[in-house]
Amino acid sequence: MRALCALTIIQPGQESLIKALDELYPAYWVEGKPTHEKECLTEVLSKVFGADTAKNVMEMAGKEGKELLIKNTDRALADDAFGLPWFVATNAKGETETFWGVDHLAQVTEHLGLEKPRVGGWKALL
Question: What region holds the DSBA-like thioredoxin domain (predicted)?
Fold first, then answer.
């Protein structure tokens, strides 16, 4: 978690985090790699972002990554988060609501005013 927080400092936004998770998921769940170990995590991040970025992420994970993780955790606790996934969604009207669990994704999309596709993954998920 610290390394992923450090990654978002180096490369702000969700795109880099999504790329990292897309690579970490099969490494752990499919290939059975110990992604919690520094060497393995560095290897996985290197595949996506290159060796220099992976090295910088791992160097920042101990201090800056930890600080951001603490800040994020404190914010989640302030929002009364009690499990994962926890969503804080603000719609176009400025109304903010919180949601817990993947079984509430339909409520999140409704709150945000997103149009649900009639075919494809959303229909199956929601």
Answer: 17-112
Helix axis angle, 14-25 relative to 38-49, nearest 10°?
120
Kindly state the DSSP code that residue 113 receives in the 8-state scheme.
T
CA 75 to chain centre: 15
For every residue of 11-52, DSSP letters joined together read: S-SHHHHHHHHHHHHIIIIIT---TTSHHHHHHHHHHHH-HH
User: What is the value of pTM for the model shown?
Assistant: 0.77
For residue 7, give the nearest of 48, 61, 46 by alpha carbon: 61
Residue 16 in tokens: 């880099």
